[in-house]
Give the backbone structure.
Amino acid sequence: MLHSPRSVHLIAHVRRGAGLGLVAVGILWLAGCEGPLSTLEPAGRGAAQIAELFWWMTGGAALVWLSVVGLAVYAIRVSPEAHSVRKAKWLIIGGGAVFPTIVLSGYLVYGLALMPALLAPAGEGGLQIEVSGEQWWWRVRYITPEGETVELANEVRLPVGRRVDFLLSSPDVIHSFWIPSLGGKLDMIPGRVNRLTLEPTKVGTYRGACAEYCGTAHALMQFYAVVEEEDAFAAWLTRQAKPAAPPTSALAARGQRLFLSNGCGACHTVRGTEADGVVGPDLTHVGSRVSLGGGLLPTEPEDFLRWVAHTEAVKPGVHMPAFGMLPDEELRALAAYLSELE
Ligand SMILES: [Cu+2]
């Protein structure tokens, strides 16, 4: 068939497009391999075992694919005449039934052997953290060695090398708790407490996400897992257990009064003040956290201002009213107060 100059041009165009498309897909694919949500850069025992299993399966699948394609090419190109169904019987039984059974049984035994160590609870010397998935943020509770309850939000801190039991629950719909760098994920189901045990092995800041669609702001329901040395972790927990420090500047003191007079305390607790609401996150030490709104904003004064004034725009669907009607200097005072809560 002869192509007109125009269709040749078109074919070249389509080829170039397809090539670029493949490159783009390849880059996207590789971009998934690293970063704070990566399962292939493990920083925990469970994640390391899962990544190892993944590489064995990928390698095995590549080998099987290459052999099958090799055989197909051989059958079509090299000796196309000699392949009657009768002659290929050994190939059908061996390659179609015996070989897959052996390979899959091998993987099954290997996978099952990993399970007991992955699922074992933290036990003696371990840490227990309660996490409740709520639309659309994470309520986190620690019990200190002294028996005090410490509540925070959208962040867990973990001592490196220690096993941690996460006791997972939900008051509304099903969520799923996942820190890809540390290990597998587990559903949070209303009316139940599910235990997920993780063991961080590397100091660093990792990201967690909700892995079960739970409504409008599901994709904006993230959190941070900060893995620290044992001493830093203990010091952090001691600080979190303290009530909020009183405001240090006139602006922040005004912010505190505005916080109480605008009804923020009906939904938020600031330990050490009369604000004792339990609808939203505990804000006692919100200024010391990595993020606001479930991984959405950092915790500088301008971020607090943006959150309080434009809540719905920052996080569509959010269960907190925006306070954008307050005058600018009142918003600034509120932001100064909140960012001082360290
Ligand atoms: Cu969700």
In short: Residues 175, 210, 212-214, 218, 221 surround copper (II) ion (CB under 6 Å). Strands lie at 127-134, 137-143, 149-153, 155-159, 164-169, 175-178, 186-188, 194-198, 204-210, 222-228.
